[in-house]
Amino acid sequence: MKILKITLNILILSLFFSCNNPQEILKIDDESTIVETKDSVIRVLNFATFHMGYTNDAYSMEFDENNKKNVDSIHQIAKILSTFKPTVIVVETTPDYNETLQKSYSTYLKTPNVDFEEPDEIELFAFEIGRLSDVKRIYGIDHKLEYNYRIGSEIINSIDSTILNNFQANPFKSIPNLNPFENGLSLKEKLVRMNHPKLLDLLITANADILTYAGTENGFEGADEAAKYYQRNLRIYSNLNRLELNKNDRVFILSGGSHTAFLREFMKRDEKYEMVNTFDYLK
Description:
Blueprint: H1 2-18, E1 26-28, E2 34-36, E3 42-49, H2 68-81, E4 88-91, H3 98-110, H4 121-133, E5 137-140, H5 161-169, H6 187-194, H7 197-207, H8 221-242, E6 250-256, H9 257-268, E7 273-275
Parallel strand pairs: 3-6, 3-7, 4-5, 4-6
Antiparallel strand pairs: 1-2
Helix pairs in contact: 2-4, 3-4, 7-9, 8-9
């Protein structure tokens, strides 16, 4: 028994000194089960949407952002998501636009019925979630970085044009029941599909990883283009990490699906954040 007690004490000490943050020390409870405390984490609802205004993305959804019925549907979903009770809203605009973004948001808070000339998912969706949750702060974290996702059709592909072309011809073949472009779907069902983990994984493949099948005999043209998209999303994540956030903040992130997918991967491995289950709120 003495040997066991000494071993247990050594384990506790080693856990104490191996932790960088005292608030994240592993402790032994009354039933001798190891429990991890995470009092310092920032909770995040990382939400994927399609672009509701103009977009130059390869894939876009038909959506009339000026149709009252569509706006009402968006606001109904915003009301559901606002139960997350965010304190900060983060959207897909660049940080140099933050001052203008905050002014536009402040105008919306004072006059929710304001007519935006060309409304998109930020004005229609993020602003309404913020209004319902009494959010004071809104930030953009996007980073623009051009990359050529059509590279496979512009070179003599010596790697595997069959796999590349077949995938790009029907990227949803492996998950047909999650295709958000399927006809007849309600707005809510489109968003449910866009936030499904399998769809988010597919978006990383479609926007980056599949390009590793494109390259000339001695080149890595496709992989190099894919790396640019990884770089863009890493810079987006770096912009998120620049925000002044603390453990009392609850962050709602609204962005296009592929950015949501990359942020999901980064935050899964980051002790600073704890992603809540989207489907605890998108009901």
